[in-house]
Specification:
30% helix; disordered C terminus; Jelly Rolls; binds 2-oxoglutaric acid; binds fe (ii) ion
Length: 412
């Protein structure tokens, strides 16, 4: 597992090869490419002193998301209790036998992938900015970089399973049975939208508030560290949860320190925030249309995939039709062959003229990246199905009251 104390800043092969000055120059170059608005010499990267704040404290967070062990949840039950009604849930135990759960430690990953370049963000032109993994680890555990930056660089790599140097990582985990239907598979590996990411970063890195692209649902399995999540149900107006105000940037730290406190006040005008602290080995199911922001409380390693199944097909179809019209035709042709029932549904949508005008791809992430992307009152983990169901039914009411799952402007 990653843990700052066991992962000292041992000099990497790169540091030895290039020397500290060279490494420092290269890290700064990457930082400038990813966030050109921040100077790397005037302290802009740590101007808000987030590393000295209590932003990563869990005091007062009430995690009421139900926990269910996979042995107590069949795929049919998952679809019925959580997927169709669009209720977030945490499934435990899925990663217990994954090599990733055992082997994705910084030192092991450094040995195997130290020279491979992973994506740590995008530049101003939208091109991926990549960094050799060994340098990234040096950055991440450097007290004057990842240990100090307000919103550190974050590996959010959507091509890890396709690139020669990192491909073997894909063999270290298994897509859980609940999420295997994966209807975008029919479009073909080359044409389908990005759908799987390796996600790794230090405390305070994370993903700003967003809805996942094309109304897809997601699962996210944490292999090390803790992630704090804040979720809002489908239909929550963007202007409340993502206000366009000076000083509110798209970073997770910025959202959690400036917007989140408003969402806990009694005069908050819209749906209540749903809190969650994800522990290692836990898999979060994020139904399509849910807003979510994620802050890493420690150094974390996770794998996440987005998917379309029979349960969310209609919504995803509407968004794909509008957002990816060419691809949607290829998809429809494949559906005619493989899933005529869903192709018929797609034609119905078309006949009713119900194509979505908001593609739902309001994703944003940490400084560095973009993914295209219950307990008792003490906040402890709930392993009890009954209390899970109580929370579930409250959330169902909210989802129904809030409409069809796509953010709607309602801010006058
Ligand atoms: O782990 C994270 O930073 C959040 C991932 C996420 O929300 C996404 O992949 O869409
Ligand atoms: Fe997401």
């Amino acid at each position: 597992m990653i843990n700052a104390s066991s992962t000292s800043c041992q000099p990497s092969k790169f540091a030895e090869a290039f020397g500290d000055d060279e490494r420092e120059r290269k890290i700064r170059k990457v930082k400038r490419a990813v966030r050109s608005e921040l100077s790397t010499s005037k302290g802009d990267w740590y101007r808000n002193a987030c590393a000295q704040s209590d932003i990563c404290s869990t005091t007062g967070i009430e995690d009421r998301i139900p926990r269910v062990h996979w042995k107590d949840l069949t795929p049919e039950e998952f679809a019925e209790r959580f997927e169709r009604p669009r209720i977030p849930v945490v499934i435990t135990g899925l990663a217990d036998d994954w090599p990733a759960f055992r082997d994705w430690t910084p030192e092991r990953l450094r040995q195997l992938y130290g020279e491979h370049k992973f994506k740590v963000g995008s530049d101003d032109e939208g091109y991926a900015v990549r960094m050799p993994f060994a340098w990234y680890l040096d950055y991440m555990f450097d007290p004057l970089h990842g240990g100090r930056d307000d919103s550190p660089l974050y590996i959010f790599d959507g091509t890890f399973a396709d690139r020669e140097g990192s491909k073997p990582l894909r063999k270290d985990y298994e897509v859980p049975e609940y999420f295997r239907e994966d209807l975008f598979r029919l479009v073909g590996e080359k044409r389908r939208p990005p759908y799987r990411w390796l996600v790794l970063g230090p405390a305070r890195s994370g993903s700003g508030l967003h809805i996942d692209p094309l109304a897809t649902s997601a699962w996210n399995t944490l292999l090390a560290g803790r992630k704090r999540w804040a979720l809002f149900p489908p239909g929550t107006p963007r202007c409340h949860v993502l206000p366009k105000e000076q000083g509110i940037e798209r970073e997770a730290v910025s959202w959690f320190s400036k917007v989140y406190p408003r969402a806990t006040r009694s005069d908050w005008p819209t749906a209540r925030v749903v809190d969650l602290v994800q522990a290692p080995g836990e898999t979060v199911f994020v139904p399509g249309g849910w807003w979510h922001a994620v802050l890493n409380l420690d150094a974390t390693v996770a794998v996440t995939q987005n998917y379309v199944s029979t349960a969310n097909f209609e919504r995803v179809w509407k968004h794909t039709r509008k957002g990816r019209p060419k691809m949607s035709l290829k998809w429809l042709a494949a559906l005619e062959r493989e899933r005529p029932d869903l192709a018929a549904l797609a034609h119905d949508v078309e006949d009713r003229g119900e194509v979505e005008c908001n593609t739902g791809s309001s994703s944003s992430s940490s400084s560095s990246s973009s993914s295209e992307g219950s307990s008792d009152s003490g906040g402890s983990t709930c392993t009890n199905k009954r209390s899970g169901e109580a929370v579930t039914s409250q959330i169902i009411k909210r989802v129904r009251a809030d409409g069809d799952g796509i953010e709607k402007p309602n801010c006058r």
